[in-house]
Amino acid sequence: MRVADVRARLERLGSGVTFHVLRLGFASRFLAYLVLHSGTALRRFRLTTAEIYFAGVLSLIIILVSGMFVGMVLALQGYETLQRFGASESLGVLVALSLVRELGPVVAGLLFASRAGSAITAEIGLMKATEQLSAMEMMAVDPIARVVAPRFWGGVLSMPLLAALFSATGIFGGYVVGVQLIGVDAGAFWSQMQAAVDVRNDILNGVIKSLVFGIAVTWIAVFEGYDAPPTAEGVSGATTRTVVTSSLAILFLDFILTALMFTGGTHQ
Amino acid sequence: MQQSPAAHPIVEIRKLSFGYDRSRPVLRDINLEIPRGSVVGIMGQSGCGKTTLLRVIMGALRPSAGEARVLGHSTNTLDAEGLYAMRRKMGMLFQFGALFTDMSVYENVAFPLREHAALPDELLNDLVMMKLHAVGLRGAAHLAPTELSGGMARRVALARSIALDPQLILYDEPFTGLDPISFGVIVRLIRELNDSLGATSVIVTHDVQEALGVVDYVYFMAAGRVIAQGRPDEIRRSGEPFVRQFVNGSSEGPVPFHYPAPGYDADLELAAPEPQASPVMPQASH
Amino acid sequence: MNRSTIDLWVGVFVVAGIAGLLFLALKVGNLASFSTSQMYQVQAKFANIGGLKARAPVKSAGVVIGRVADIRFDNESYEALVARSSPPASSASSTSASKRAATA
After folding, report:
1. Which of the 8 DSSP states describes residue C54?
2. Residues of C in contact with A197 (CB under 8 A)
């Protein structure tokens, strides 16, 4: 009885693992096909422009407002801690480095996943459920090239810009709270920041992070949409999976990238 | 467009079988011919494999055995590009239209033209308007698909599927969920478009009575096989019990009311009750 | 939504995004202080570098004249080898820049 029980559990675990590995393989093949069939999306760039509008422009408000508040909170919290050590002029450094290296790409990525990623999944999933993708295929138009690829590139191109805007408004928010409200010296705020933030090591690495997150989130979003069971529950489940999986992917990739980029302790 | 009508049937299916897996064949040993210029119906109960047959004809599924020759190509051997080239000569009307919800009616009809032909704007506009005029919806060009009734949406989808002047038009359940007027319009359009385009039409449907009024020839399917065929008047007079049941829509006949199941007694746990049977289960009902 | 309206908004978005990146590079980062003129390297040896780190500014009279490029351990002299890049204009003073100035 117990042996059979353990056996059944192991079997379930095994088939679960196999299922996910198979799905990852399919998703990779899908990505390769998608990238190889991106000719239409890039040649007729208007298709991609429209998707930059939906993924990027429509995410702007939430990105800007969140960035502003995150920067303001960072300044408040950072000042509390720094002034205990008499280092409140380093407030700019703290706000800028936190945003540029970590919070900008990560929080913008999480917001992007829930705002744009879920919308992409739902849209592609519904197009599949209502046979729009089959109809396209019947018209001898490859739905991956025509529908999926523009959404993929639109998301991938939008994400670094959104992350940069998130960091920039965050730093502005930190400036407003730190300098205008609390009264940290403006000169110290900016000059210490400039001395400490390196373009290649901090800013460029942040941009690379946001690009990687953009690829991961959009890949997950288009794949979940394309792979969604063509029913109402199927699409809603796929939308939830997009947000959950891409949020986990962002945090996991962030750890990997941070470990690769910022190890060695050569930073101040 | 009509070339040597009798020479080659536009769709020719020989000894075709298909199954998603080996144990459950969906189509079994189908033989079927669709001559040029005709309107042919493929009818049968839901789940008899007629939609699967349609998907084999459009090349979305590959037969497990036998051959389907469509427009002169064997779908078994076509690669993706050959398949797309073949589909450019085909139009397909989906059950609920499958209009692109993010585009206007005009853009929906323009879609295949934009994708496959680099036309100047004026010519494109003329073509789109001609197709919309053919289905009587020129005035609805600027509407969004969500603003259309079911019947109108299907007419727009029809205009879209004939945008490239196809030689073969496939209809998947074109009559489902239509009111009598929309239904009459669709029936008229199927016939008119078929004759004016010199095309060939295949209608897959379970609305037998309605479809018998449009088609030139009917294939009846049941459980993955073609069980009867003939002209509509032959079918109406047919003595075959299944066809009679289907045409008359009666619940009694060779098609059983009950889905295959183990004995009724067994399901009520009368025959051999399991040791762990729930105590609240009625023990006897006789 | 009109096509040209979409194009306009996407244009605004891309310009804003690039402006954000430039703001980060120029105002937040130190790209503006990068000298476009040729840098040359100065090496110095210290018995103890204290808390000196790579990329720390090298100052002369309080002015940033270069940055610490690299810190290594010298296997022969058993001292720390600090390489600094400085713009040529300030070569005279940079050679005398002390470790204390570098860590400031």
Report:
1. T
2. 28-30
In order along its 268 residues, chain A shows pLDDT tens digits of 678 889 999 999 988 899 989 999 999 999 999 999 998 888 888 889 999 999 999 999 999 999 999 999 999 999 999 999 888 888 999 999 999 999 999 999 999 999 999 999 999 999 999 889 988 988 888 999 999 999 999 999 999 999 999 999 999 999 999 999 998 888 888 888 888 888 888 899 999 999 999 999 999 999 999 999 999 999 999 999 999 999 999 999 999 999 998 765 444 4
> CB C29 to CB A195 under 8 A?
no
Give the end-to-end CA distance of chain A in Å, rounded to a whole number. Answer: 61
Nearest CB to B87 within list A123, A132, A138: A138
Distance separating the N- and C-terminal Cα atoms of chain B: 71
Among residues B151, B194, B139, B132, the alpha carbon closest in space to that of B169 is found at B194
Q: C40-103: which CATH architecture? A: Beta Barrel (2.40)
C7 near A CB under 8 A = yes
* Residues composing chain B: 286
What is the residue-wise DSSP string for A116-153?
Answer: IIHHHHHHHHHHHHTTHHHHHHHTT--HIIIIIHHHHH
Tell me what ipTM this predicted complex has: 0.83
Alpha-carbon gap, residue B171 to B183, rounded angstroms? 14
Q: Which chain B residue is nearest to residue A142, measuring alpha carbons?
A: B84
The domains located in chain B, with CATH, are 11-267 (3.40.50.300)
Q: Are A78 and A227 in contact (CB under 8 A)?
A: no
Partner residue opposite A131 with nearest CB, options B90, B94, B112: B94
Gap between the Cα atoms of A27 and C73, Å rounded: 48
Q: How far apart are the C-alpha atoms of A223 and A219, rounded to whole Å?
A: 6
Question: Is residue B237 within a helix (H) or strand (E), and if so which, with residue range?
Answer: helix B232-237
Domain ranges in chain A are 37-261
Distance CA(A137)–CA(A122), nearest Å, equals 20
Task: Count CB-CB contacts under 10 A for residue B211.
Answer: 23
For residues B58 and B168, give the distance between their C-alpha atoms in angstroms, rounded to a whole number: 10
